[in-house]
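A quick aside before the break. I want you to see a complete sequence-to-structure record at least once, exactly as it would be stored in a machine-readable document. Don't worry about memorizing anything.
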Amino acid sequence: MSKKAKSVKTLSDLRPCPWNPREMDAQSAAGLQTSLAEFGDISQIVLNERTGFLVAGHQRVAALTVLYGNLPVVDGVITTPTGERFAVRVVDWPKEKADLAMIAANNAFIAGDFTQGLRDITAGLDEQFADLTKKLRFDDLLDDMPAEPEAPGEFPEANENILTEHQCPKCGYKWSGGK
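That is the input. The structure line, written in tokens, reads:
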């Protein structure tokens, strides 16, 4: 561990990057706090020792601070009063690389999309964990998903005698519309 990383003693030493292009509304922050308290670290906190700023984990550090105050960071690990552990990954990157990583870490376009299988997974959870699924905004997540596609109606029977407007002189392919 580098000299700068060793100087990280508490959560307040994990300074948010002032130009971090991500923000979170109060409802989302409450959901993140619920997730951290319920599941612990299911992602990562990354500190760039070269700049002294976070690359990833801004919202997690803020949520942990709201939940537990200025926790100590011991040997690169934050431990909550409930025993959950959050590792702090330390990198040594130029500012530009850290900026790229900060954006990539929050880029919804490279995070993938939920499939219709999400509805199957969540179907029974609302009854058993109603308070938790509400705080984690499962309803909003499901509302945001496109409806399951419906199968198309009957297709007309195909036959070789369909009237077409054009025919390729080389291969004989027939079509209608466009040229």
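Two observations worth writing down. The two ends are 67 Å apart (CA to CA). The longest helix spans residues 26-39. We'll return to this after the break.
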